[in-house]
Design a protein that fits this description.
By secondary structure, the chain is an alpha+beta fold. The protein has one domain (about 10-80). The protein is built from 2 helices and 4 strands, in the order ββββαα. The chain has helices at about 55-60, 65-80; strands spanning about 10-15, 20-30, 35-40, 40-50. Strands 2-1-4-3 form a 4-stranded mixed sheet, with no helix packed on it. Strand 3 (about 35-40) and strand 4 (about 40-50) form a beta hairpin. The longest helix has 12 residues, at about 65-80.
């Protein structure tokens, strides 16, 4: 590895999804001012608005768009020209 190219603040950070209170811990360089205590140890806390636990695509609550209907409508309108 090359020396002095990696960030100095690479550490464990807790990410918290504020919409569903889901937390997960991973290594990151994100700057934070808040901390959270987990199992007796303080970790930097980064608050998220959305994660895989609350995103409609991953939860299965996504509204499906009828793309076939759009194509048919386009072809009826502009396909004859």
């Amino acid at each position: 590895m090359k020396a002095d190219i990696h960030p100095k603040n690479y550490r464990l950070v807790v990410f918290k999804d504020m919409s569903c209170d889901h937390t997960f811990m991973t290594h990151s360089c994100v700057d934070t001012k808040e901390t959270i205590n987990i199992d007796g140890q303080d970790y930097p806390l980064f608050k998220l608005e959305i994660s895989s636990q609350s995103h409609p695509f991953y939860t299965g609550k996504q509204n499906l768009i009828d793309t076939a209907g759009r194509i048919d409508k386009f072809m009826r309108r502009y396909g004859k020209k």
